[in-house]
């Protein structure tokens, strides 16, 4: 892969660690014809979507679509696997749309829809593949098997692909039910848990390639598998996989940017917590020779929290703007808002102590791990035990 040409070995473990990033101008000069064709294909796809589905999109949604193109394009330039992911996602999603022929009933009549490409089938495959990836990652760690760990990585990529296919097809299915029902699939716990699994896995897969180690997959996939377990229980117990119309407070374009930003933050915090578990085990001498160097774990924990905090801050600001639009005030000390502030203050303090006081080691790891419990309560606990303006999100 391209980044290997600019890496250097760590003296502590022999792991390959990234060297200083190349200047932006140097990276631009290294772009090839394939890179520009990839970006052109993205713009062509966005234009196609506007031509065929513009009547279902307001100006804000059109702007979001066009703005996503350069973001995904640049991501694909500097993280090559994203290209294959985007291409396969587009291919499978378009195949599903073609097979539906505008009739939702075909989900139970067409073989490939029923068993592979309908939203429920694809998300079920995603769940299965994440669980298998967890098994193989742990097998790779415990048996020191590079083959098992590599299989875990491939299964994780496959799960991400099918999860995104499920989300895209679910979006299309919602419009097949009714134009007034159609909405982006990030409106209830079932949908956002799928989103959480996908974002956390993508975060991890990037760092897996960045640091050239699969030893952390066993830990990170545990939190994803836990989310999958909740997802399966929620689908069975509440039939949450059924597409429902949006409740009134969610009928806003703010949801389309607030929720993804929020869950990028959750993904970063979750990744940091699972890296913290690995760091604590290494410090206490458990699998110490199988895990990356402490300096690598510490660096990854810091970067995950920093990225997560940036997006969580953005989500909080967007949420305040949404509240002003929907309820007439930026802040109301609703339980969900209050606990979001607690989460924000927790990670702001962690970053402050890291940057000003040099926070590292056992305290930093335990703090990151406990921070995930605080975040979990802010996300799920508030929905379960408290009520307020966000009561439409209760379990």
TrEMBL record:
InterPro entries: Cyt_c_assembly (IPR002541), Cyt_c_biogenesis_CcsA (IPR017562), Cyt_c_biogenesis_CcsA/CcmC (IPR045062). Keywords: Cytochrome c-type biogenesis, Membrane, Transmembrane, Transmembrane helix. It is found in: Membrane. It is a multi-pass membrane protein. GO terms for molecular function: heme binding. GO terms for cellular component: plasma membrane. It comes from Mycoavidus cysteinexigens. GO terms for biological process: cytochrome complex assembly. PANTHER family: CYTOCHROME B_B6 PROTEIN-RELATED, HEME EXPORTER PROTEIN C. It comes from the Bacteria. This is Cytochrome C assembly protein. Coiled coil: none annotated. Pfam families: Cytochrom_C_asm.
């Amino acid at each position: 892969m391209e980044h290997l040409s600019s890496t250097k070995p760590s003296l502590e473990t022999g792991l390959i660690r990234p060297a200083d990033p190349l200047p932006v101008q140097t990276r631009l000069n290294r772009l090839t014809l394939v890179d520009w064709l990839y970006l052109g294909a993205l713009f062509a796809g966005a234009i196609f979507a506007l031509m065929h589905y513009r009547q279902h999109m307001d100006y804000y949604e059109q702007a979001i679509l066009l703005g996503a193109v350069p973001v995904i394009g640049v991501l694909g330039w500097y993280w090559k696997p994203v290209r294959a992911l985007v291409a396969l996602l587009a291919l499978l999603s378009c195949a599903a749309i073609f097979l539906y022929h505008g009739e939702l009933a075909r989900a139970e009549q067409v073989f490939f829809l029923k068993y592979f490409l309908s939203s429920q089938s694809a998300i079920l495959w995603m769940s299965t593949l994440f669980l298998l990836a967890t098994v193989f990652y742990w097998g790779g760690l415990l048996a020191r098997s590079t083959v098992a760990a590599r299989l875990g990585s491939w299964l994780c990529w496959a799960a991400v692909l099918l999860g995104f296919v499920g989300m895209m097809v679910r979006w299309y299915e919602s419009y097949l039910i009714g134009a007034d029902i159609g909405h982006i699939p990030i409106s209830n716990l079932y949908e956002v848990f799928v989103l959480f699994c996908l974002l956390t896995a993508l975060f991890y897969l990037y760092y897996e390639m960045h640091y050239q180690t699969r030893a952390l997959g066993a830990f990170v996939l545990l939190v994803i598998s836990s989310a999958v377990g909740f997802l399966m229980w929620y689908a069975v117990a509440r039939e949450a996989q059924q597409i429902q119309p949006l409740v009134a407070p969610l009928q806003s374009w703010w949801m389309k940017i607030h929720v993804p930003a929020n869950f990028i933050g959750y993904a970063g915090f979750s990744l940091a917590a699972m890296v913290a578990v690995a760091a604590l085990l290494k410090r206490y001498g458990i699998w110490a020779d199988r895990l990356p160097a402490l300096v690598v774990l510490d660096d990854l924990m810091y970067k995950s929290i920093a990225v997560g905090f940036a997006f969580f801050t953005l989500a909080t600001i967007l949420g305040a703007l949404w509240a002003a639009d929907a309820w007439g005030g930026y802040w109301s000390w609703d339980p969900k808002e209050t606990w979001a502030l607690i989460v924000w203050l927790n990670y702001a303090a962690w970053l402050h102590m890291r940057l000003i006081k040099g926070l590292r080691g056992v305290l930093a790891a335990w703090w990151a791990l406990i921070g995930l419990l605080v975040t979990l309560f802010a996300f799920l606990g508030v929905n379960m035990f408290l009520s307020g303006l966000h009561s439409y999100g209760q379990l």
